[in-house]
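task queued by scheduler; priority normal; single chain, no ligands, no partner chains; default sampling; output format set to C-alpha cells
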Amino acid sequence: MPPDSIAALRQRAKTLLWLEILVHATAPAAFCILAYFAAALFGLATPWLFTALLLLAAAALAYGAAKLRAPTAQKIDGRIESASGLKHRPFAALDDEPADPNPIAMALWRAHQQRSLAALQGARIGLPAPAAATRDPFSLRALLSLLVLCGLVIAGPGNIPARLSGAVWLPSWPFAGPSVTAWLTPPAFTGQPPQILAPGQTVTALAGASLTIITNGPASAPPILLAGIKIPDNPLSPTSHRADATVQTSGALLVGPWWHRLAAWRITIVPPAAPTLTLKSLILTNGNLLRVAWTVTDPYGLKTLTAAITPSGHPAALPQTFSLPSATATAATIDLTTAPIFLVPETLRLTATNAAGITATAAWPQNFTATGLALTDPTAFALNFHRRQLALAPPEFQPEAAAMLALAAAPKSRITAAADVKLAALATALSIQVLSTPDAVSHLLPLIQEIDAGPDYEPQQNLLAANQALTAALQRALAGQKLDSGALQKLIQAMQQALAQHLGALQPAPQAGQPPPPAMDTSALTRMAQKIAADEAAGRTQQAAQELRQLQKILSQLAHAKPMTAAQMAQAQAAAQAASALSQITQGEANLLNQTSQGAGTQAAQSALQQQLAAAAAALAGANLHLPGLGDAGAAMQGANTALSQQDTRNAESNENAAIAGLQKAQAALAAAQSGNFGVGQPQPGGDSGSGQDSVNGGPDDDSTPLDLSTAPNPARAIEQQIIQQDSAPNLPPPTHSYYHSLLQSGGAGQ
C-alpha cells in the first residue's frame, strides 16, 4: 500500500474517532432533549420545564465538552487494526527500524515490512461504535425510545406537529413588557359569548371559532404564531396592533419571539357535535297515516328534521321527503294518502341537521306498506297504478306513457272531455320528454282526483280553499293579529257559498214530481266561527284553539264526505232490515217467555222464531255483517225448543232468557255499526286519544277531542242535529238520503 493511502486511511479513522467522541460528549444533552420532547408528545410541556431542560442540557454539554480529548496516533492505528482484524501491529512494523543495521537484518526487516504492507491492503476503519452498553448500563435509552413511540401514538398524526412546535417557548420575562389581550369568539351557531384568554391557559374551542389578539406598547407588532403559522396583523395606532384568525387546527398560540415570549396559550380544537337522534316508534294507521315518534337532542339547536321514505328493492325510485317539526315536537303524522308509491314495502329514515350543519340519521328496522288513494272510478284507479310505476322506475317511462295514451283513447269509465284531453296531453308530453318523470307524477295526482271526484271536483277544491282561508284567518287571530268582523263575515259567506255548490254537485237532480231537498242550515258554523273570534279577542286562547280544531274537523268532513257506494247502500239497507227483524224476533221471544211462565209455551212457536233468526243471520252474512250474540241466541233457542218438547218449563225459561240476552247483544252491536256511536265533530273510535297536534301537512289532527261546552250548546252537535232533521224529511230521494247518512258515519269524512 502506498504511503499516501496509509495517510488517508489514518485520516478517516481519526474522523471516525472524533465523531464517536462528539457523540459521547453530546449524548447526555440529547437524552435530556428527547426526554422533554417525549413529555411534549404527552402534552406535559411547559415554558418552565423547557427552561429547566435548556439549563440541564447546557450543563451536560459543557461537561462533555470539558472532557473532549483529541485521538492519539496509537488510538488511530489501533482502531484500524481492530476494525480490520490485523495481528502483530503492522503499523508499528512500518514505523520501527531494526537496531542492527547489517545487511542480513535489514533484508529480513524489509521483508517483514512488505508483509505488513500486504496485510494493510484490505484495512478498513469500520463503523462508529458508541459503546452505549458501557455508558448506559441500565438501558435508559430503550426506555426513552419506548416513551417517544408511545407519545407519537397517543398524540396522533394530527397533533404531533402542533405539540412539538408548541413545546419550544420560554416563560414571559419577569419585567414589564407590551400588554397582550386575546379572546376566542365561538361560532355564531352556538350563541355563546366570547371567551377572554388568561395567560398560559389551555383552551378548548370549536372549529371555526374566531381568534382576536391585540398588543399594546411596541412600535412594531410582535410575531404571532398559531400552530406554527404566522397570523397577519393590522395597526390600530402607532403602538397598538390587532390580529384576527379563524381557528381550525389545534396548536400553540405564541405572541413574541421565543427568547422574549409575551404570551402563550395551548388551543385544542374539537369539531362541532352531531345531533343525538333516536327513532322511538312508527305506527301505520288507517292504511296511510304514518305516526312517527322520536327523540332528538342537540347543543346548538336543530335546523331541519326530515323523513325520507324509500321503497324496498327500488333504488331508482323518486325520493319522498317530508319536513317534520324540529322545534319542540317529538311526534308527527305523515299523511301518505296522496303519495305516489303505495302497496310496496317501504322504509323510513329520519335525518336531523343542526345549526352547525352536522347531521345524524336514524332508520326504522321494519318495513311498512301504505294503501294509497281510495278510488272508486276505474279510470282513476288504473291511472293511479301508472303513476305508481312511474314513481318506482322513473327511467322506464315510455311503457307507462304508451299505456296512458291507450287509457285516454279508451277510458275504463265515463270521464269528462276535459279530463280526457288532460290525460292525453300528459302522456304525450311524457313520451316525447317535454315533461320530466317527476313532473308527470306530480301532475297526475290532481287529474286522478278530478276523474274520481267527477262533477264535484271543482266545487270541492273551492270549498277546501274557502275552508283554508277561514281557518287561516282564525289562526292568525289566535296568534295576536286583529281580525275585522267584516272580513270574518266575508270569509264565512265564501265558505257557505262553496259548501252549497259542493252539496249541489253531490246531490242528484230531483225526479219529476219530487220537491228539491232542503238546503243545509249552516248557521251553526257561522256561530262557531264568530265564537272563536270572540274567545280570541277576550283572551280565552286555549278554548279558542280547541274550538278552532273542532271547526277544522267539521269543515274537513263536510268537504270530503261522499254519497255511499252501491255496496255501502246495500249493506245499510240490509242492516236496517236486520234491525227490524231482530226487534220482532226479540219481541216474539219475550212473548214466548211470558207464555212459558204461564204454562202455555209451545215448541212450534219456538221453532218459528228459530227460523226467523236463521233468515236474519243469513241476510246479515250476505251483507258481510257478523254480529256477536247471534250464535248464543240460536243455541239458547235450540235449548228452549228441546226443553219445551220435554215439558221442562224451568230449563225452557232459562234458555229463553239467554236467547233474549243474545238478541239484545246483537241489536246493540248492529246499532253501534250503523251509527258509529259518534257524529260530526266527535272523536273516531280506535283513534289516537287526541294529541291535538297538527299533522305534517299542516292540517288539523283528525283525532282531536271536541270541545265540551257545559254552558252553551255544542255547535258540532247542532250541525249534526240539522243533518238528522234533513235526513228525516219525507219523500227524500235515496241518493240524498245516502249522502246525509254518510255525513253521520265515521268513514264518510275521510273516504
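post-processing summary
- The chain has six domains: 3-86+123-150, 170-270, 278-363, 378-454, 459-509+517-562+715-749, 566-675.
- Residues 3-41 form the longest helix (39 residues).
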